[in-house]
Amino acid sequence: MTLPDGQPSLNRDAEATESSTLSLEDGDIHVCQDGPRDAPALLLIHGTAASANSWYALVPLLTQSHRVIRVDLLGHGRSAEPADGSYAIPDQARRVGEALDRLGVKQAIAVGHSSGGMVATALAEQRPDLVTALALINTGPSMDALIAQESAAIGPAQWPPTDEQIRRLASTGFSRAGYQMPQEFVDEVRGMSFHAFAAVMQAPGSYLERQALPDRLAVLGKPLLVIFGEEDRRWRSSSAADYRTVPGATVELLPGVGHSPILEDPPGTAALVLAFTAIHGARVD
């Protein structure tokens, strides 16, 4: 499969990816690894209702210098969807930390897209020894930055949703309304249970309402990179400035890019991440 912009399918490097499932106490977690195992670890955390596949275009740009680790959060992708599991941001972060422990990772730079940036923040709060630095990509700093959406809710009676419903829900994830969301992503959303979908949609707001991200990050003392697409239709891009209250934070805006720079501008996103990791690289044990 070739995507509309000419990029190959998200399975293009599947033969080079080491895929495994880790059995944790509250559910199996699917993990992907790429790049040399003796290189500094770079952890990539996807956003709500996405999966490790959402990073497919970025991974080949990062593996020359990093051991790239991607995790399907509980309820997403190929990870478990327990009906009695917690999908709260801190619990998702705890599982990611447990997965890295299983992989023998002692230190990593955590990169999160959208709500994945909240999971990265929660992981740094819980495991400051593990997370050496953070990069947040289009992660809203607080609920004040949220742009109200006018989309019809999907209830349990309408589940699973149609392709059209999923594409309509996802349309604000890109800078232009006509962006063709890869069919693999559509299928992944449809494959989620309604319980998991509803729970993960609610989790980011609950986390931000307890405390805004800049306040959480300011006390951690970790190097911070914030990347924001200027045309984001989910979070006000001007809110990226809120992160400047974090000592030493670097804030970068990508013009002409929306909520998903990892898909809309992989080279530009990778260049910023690599420049950051070159300065704040994790230790290799």
Sum this structure up briefly.
This protein has 285 residues and is of the alpha/beta class.
Explain this structure:
It is a single chain. The protein contains 9 helices and 8 strands. The protein has 285 residues and is α/β, with parallel strands linked by helices. The protein has one domain (14-280): 3-Layer(aba) Sandwich (Rossmann fold). An 8-stranded mixed sheet has the order 1-2-4-3-5-6-7-8, sandwiched between helices. A hairpin with a 2-residue loop joins strand 1 (18-24) and strand 2. The longest helix has 17 residues, at 194-210. The chain is globular. 47% of the residues are buried.
Largest pleated sheet: 8 strands, mixed
Average residue pLDDT: 91
> How many domain units?
1
Count of helical segments?
A: 9
Shape designation: globular
Helix/strand class? alpha/beta
Task: Furnish the topology, listing elements before pairings.
Blueprint (H helix, E strand, L loop, with lengths): L17 E7 L2 E8 L6 E5 L13 H4 L4 E5 L17 H14 L5 E6 L1 H12 L4 E7 L25 H8 L12 H9 L2 H17 L2 H6 L5 E6 L20 E5 L6 H4 L1 H15 L5
Parallel strand pairs: 3-4, 3-5, 5-6, 6-7, 7-8
Antiparallel strand pairs: 1-2, 2-4
Helix pairs in contact: 2-3
